[in-house]
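Z., the sequence and structure:
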Amino acid sequence: AQAFGFNDFVSDICCSLKVNSTFSTIINMASSVYRMYRSAIASASGVVGEALTRQLILSPLCSEVRALGAINRREFEGLSATKKIRELGPILDLPSQSPTTASDASEAGRLGSGDGGEGLSSVYAAFFVVGDGRWSTPARLDEAKAFAERCAEAKVPHVTLLSSLWSDGSLPVEGAKMHGEIAEAFKSMNQGRLSIFKPSLILPSGAAAAALADADFPEKSFNTILPIARQFMPTTYREVTLDDIVLAMRLNVELVASQDPIEELTFADMMAIIGKEDTI
């Protein structure tokens, strides 16, 4: 969120005093201005997609959620806020966006007035969570590139990508390589602020855990071993719960003002965003 010039002042003070980035982020969060915004998500299906969509439609600050790709409406039955959801169809069918200035796009996405236009026009925050951040099931590169291109054309002010801590385009492991290539595609087309969430492992609970039934033996083994092995590893490798990561992704848009155009967020960053620093 913007703080209308105050964040620039805070940044200068923090630099002159040589305070750390965490303290600077906390001050920026405190100075943020709450305003309505429109969002888009690709896609609203899957473990993370459904949980994040629920977070967005229940947020009093999010006026609309434009869903690309598959969506299971039954997951949101009983919520009056489902009227905020607007389906746009398959990711690859999204037409090219009309160019606009970054300032106009930011203001339009924040005002929440009118119908907001077509596609990603007037969207302030766009989320790409296809693949649920699982290293074994990365998104298709063509869909990722198409979404990144449409965000760039529409000059979406804030784009969030759910990646993986294990993403690395130089590795021979297919899943890690694909996650790395997708991240690079988003970075190369970034027009505003890009937040890349890099969990080591997302732990769903309850009914959401059943969605991982399709995991193969290597992934199931990894999901079992990592929570034990990470006790002897740096904090960065700690697993994050589904509830925590979708909350962090939403609050990062609504509360956190970053000075970096591209930010890579790992476990400690996510916990700081949601106020769970004591778990680090």
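The first helix runs from residue 6 to 17. The chain has nine helices and nine strands.

Let me know what you think.
H.
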